[in-house]
Amino acid sequence: xxxxxxxxxxxxxxxxxxxxxxxxxxxxxxSLDPAxxxxxxxxxxxxxxxxxxAFDEYRRTSPERRAVFLRAVADEISALGDLLxxxxxxxxxxxxxxxxxxxxxxVGQLRLFADVxxxxxxxxxxxxxxxxxxxxxxxxxxxxxxxxxxxxxxxAASNFPLAFSVAGGDTAxxxxxxxxxxxxxxxxxPGTSELTARALLRAAEQTGMPKGVFTLLQGQSHExxxxxxxxxxIRAIGFTGSLRGGRALYDAAAARPEPIPVYAEMGxxxxxxxxxxALRERADEIAQGLAGSITLGVGQFCTNPGVVVAARGPELDxxxxxxxxxxxxxxxxxxxxxxxxxxxxxxxxxxxANPAVExxxxxxxxxxxxxxxxxxxxxxxxxxxxxxxxxxxxxFGPSSLVVVTEDPAETLEVARSLEGQLTATIHxxxxxxxxxxxxxxxxxxxxxxxxxxxxxxxVEVSHAMQHGGPYPxxxxxSTTSVGTAAIERFARPVTYQDFPEAVLPVELRDAxxxxxxxxxxxxxxxxxxxxxx
Length: 533
Description:
This protein has 533 residues and is of the alpha/beta class. It is built from 15 helices and 21 strands.
């Protein structure tokens, strides 16, 4: 399949500008064919107008048809076979086995959202039937449900070229909610993005979805993304990436004459608290698991454990020795693109140059070139960690900072000093969770997901998953970007008051024809509403 090297918008053909860019292999540094045209402001405008034109038809599609569409997208992506995996590996340096698993996650979440849409209870129907005889004021008939927002702009992530990109979680949840998507591809993997987008568009055509239900914008300049955010017809933004990038989009959206929500997943150090009982009993096991979590995917996960907190003592000394052995044995690996590698090296050099920080271990590789990330673990005292804000900032890559505390009270102070996080982890015993209840409650206030005796770098796509957290982890801590609850980001509630039965949405009618769960007069039920005696 030949790559076109253009944005993908409906007819007429895009009036691409003269500016082009290419993907670069992280493993060789060589530019990859073809050249990709930078989307112009006119291209962005056409894509958004196509999405807006598609919205009225798409939001009225039945749940069954929308589910068929999502499953067709999954099928078409799977049908790309080795072509997609080999191109993604060439553009990202990620191993094919990892990308094959990521493709499975991508198609799996599309099918999961199809199930959610088909079942339909996600609309959160709430019905309070009229009480005309209530005194002193009668109650009207009130019926509330979620409805789609409108065209959504989605920004693909660099570190997950499939699962958080063109047909990833933001796109899947927005399409499931009934919102057309304008996707800004990541410039580090434009070929992978085009292949996936063309698969999605084939599925849309096969299932009779309106033109404009999905469009793809290529470009490496910030102006392409800002034009998308500022367009008056875009109703929400989904983003996964850096704090700097997410905040720029958030500020641009807030400055619009009509501000819109930005659901941005950004920075997180994902602290891991190692309690003394855990280190006494499982030092070697924890060192092995933590080293794997720090270096997984060359540390390029938003849930990478960047801070480890533990109390001073012989147990910690033993643990650090075991951790150093494992980190030292990890080979340097190619990072996703030059900008990420440069940022990682700057972060590591800043830690190494800090007089309050000590190097615990570094990977044995010394000749790593310009594209490889070298694993490292550092150590500092809790007082320095709390006094120096820069030590609490994310270093995106295969490194972690061990924060040594003197006692449980100082451990609590370290927890209080943390900003919002995607995750927080505790290693200990069940008794520790009771005795350290204040620590647990502090972490509840700081993180979106709490992990016990595990590691943060596995994010299950499920109904109960929360992948979000207080700022700066995200701009919207009450929402998630992973799991079926993500659909709620791209919908808003509407209440129908005293509407005739025949013109109500089917989900709010007395008969409950879809058999969905609804809150009726304060009780959760699937039963129809029966006339009062």
